[in-house]
Amino acid sequence: MKANLKNIALRWTFLIIVFLVVEIYAFQAFKTVFKNNWTLKIYLAFNALIICNLIYRLIVINNNSLDFSDVFYNYLSIPFAIVFTLFGFKLIISSFLFIEDSSRLFIFFYKSFFSATESNSFFVQRRNFISKISILAAALPIPFVLHGIFKGRHNYRVINYELEFDDLPEKFDGYKLTHISDIHSGSLQETNKVEYAVDLINKQNSDLVLFTGDFVNNKANELNKWKRVFSKIESRDGKYSVLGNHDYGDYVSWKYKGDKKKNFLDLLSIQAEMGFKLLLNENIKIGSESQSISLVGVENWGKGGFKKKGDIDKACEGLTKNDFKIVMSHDPSHWDKILKNHNTRFHLTLSGHTHGMQFGIEIPGLIKWSPVKWVYKYWAGLYHEKNQFLNVNRGFGVLGFPGRVGVWPEISVITLKKV
Ligand SMILES: [Fe+2]
Fold first, then answer.
1. What are residue 163's DSSP bridge partners?
2. Does residue 145 lie in a domain region?
3. 258 lies in a domain?
4. Residue 387 has what DSSP assignment?
5. Of 71, 212, 330, 363, whose Cβ has the fewest other Cβ atoms within 10 Å?
6. Pair (233, 345) in one structural domain
7. Are residues 190 and 317 in the same domain?
8. Residue 326 in 3-state DSSP?
9. What separation in Å is there between the alpha carbon of 246 and the centre of ligand 1?
10. 361 CA to middle of ligand 1, Å?
């Protein structure tokens, strides 16, 4: 217990020192570059304004006894994002100046040792130059972050794929699936933008709409505001869904015993109300007795600490080797660790979960990069291994950071072709 407290104290001390160093360096850089007083005053006033705004909102939440997980996206997500962006800006400035100071210290000791002297004006000039460069470099990402918050999160993209299979039943040649994932209703804000995205889904005129989990962040009631909109999603042969790790209510503390169970049952009934047939480790045949494809839906299965309720063997009960199988599994690590190596061939697996970290650089045919690739081998787009396909949808909504930079919300449209 004592060791634990000591660790917490040490961690906080370290964080406070880093915070202070960053603030002092950033202020010094501004002072060096902008000699006039009013620029400094604007800088300080802006800092005070965003901090006061955040504190004010926290007080309002506290005074009204609001649940943090219910109100995060309405009250706090953008103020927090701006505070973090500003801190990132200062961190970049500090890194430049810290490197300069370290090298200056090194040179100081070196020169003292060899009794050499150096003009002070050279250091002043260099400090000025490095301060300017650091402010410029730190300011470069800001427009991208702001675009990500106010525009990028709604920059819906339709991505089309045509996949060929030798054993696709004849009748399904040209069959069209729309794959969506990770709606995260609690983070959605602008109704007209979400309605536009639902129209875009409907315009694909698909045979099936398949949703691969995370309808909510934490609670089923996040969908109350949106169920009318998502009910409008249309498809000829139905809408099917599976659960994601966020759909179980695991990431929020429940006041009364039984609340979590009730929340889960509410989510199931709202999904049914919206016309989604939820597949919980089960399969369903689409088509006729003689010509069909099998839709296999598993519960969440994720590597590491994520819930592992997905049971592919149970979900495949009643299926034969010859059935054409489309698997819906929220987390692509399920495909990586289990499905692609299974003794059954899963023709196509649909996943989501990664959101492509809502941040990355993607230029089709040229570059596809996001830091999330260090955590998930299969993190966005189409993969083909061992004669099986995996599509990892980049997600519809957002979680945590209320925006998207370079990795846009996605509607995947997959046409099955027989060869
Ligand atoms: Fe998600």
1. 416
2. no
3. yes
4. T
5. 363
6. yes
7. yes
8. strand
9. 7
10. 20
Per-residue pLDDT of the chain (419 residues; tens, 9 = 90+): 667 888 888 999 999 999 999 999 999 999 888 877 788 899 999 999 999 999 999 999 999 888 888 888 888 999 999 999 999 999 999 999 999 889 888 887 887 777 656 566 677 788 889 999 999 999 999 999 999 999 999 999 999 999 999 999 999 999 999 999 999 999 999 999 999 999 999 999 999 999 999 999 999 999 999 999 999 999 999 999 999 999 999 999 998 989 999 999 999 999 999 999 999 999 999 999 889 999 999 999 999 999 999 999 999 999 999 999 999 999 999 999 999 999 999 999 999 999 999 999 999 889 999 999 999 999 999 999 999 999 999 999 999 999 999 999 999 999 999 99
Residue 299 Cα, ligand 1 centroid: separation in angstroms?
14
- Which of 107, 140, 173 is the last residue in one of the domains? 140
Q: Which amino acid is at 27?
A: F
149 within a domain of the structure (yes/no): no
Using an 8 Å Cβ cutoff, are 410 and 396 in contact?
yes
Distance 29 CA to ligand 1 centre (A): 39
Structure tokens at 160: 């089309």
Q: Does 147 reside within a domain?
A: no
Q: How far is the CA of 210 from the centre of ligand 1 (A)?
A: 15
Residue 286 and residue 301 in contact, taking contact as beta carbons nearer than 8 Å: no
Which tokens hold the place of 207?
């045979």
Ligand 1 centroid to Cα of residue 80, in Å, is 20
Q: Helix 77-113 and helix 2-33: axis angle, to 10°?
A: 80
Same domain as 166, residue 74: no
Encoded tokens for 295: 């839709």
Please report, for the domain that includes residue 317, its CATH number: 3.60.21.10
Residues 126 and 180 in one domain: no
Ligand 1 midpoint to CA 216 (Å): 8
Does residue 89 sit in the same domain as residue 190? no
Q: Let me know whether 72 and 207 are in one domain.
A: no
Give me the domain span that covers residue 27: 2-140
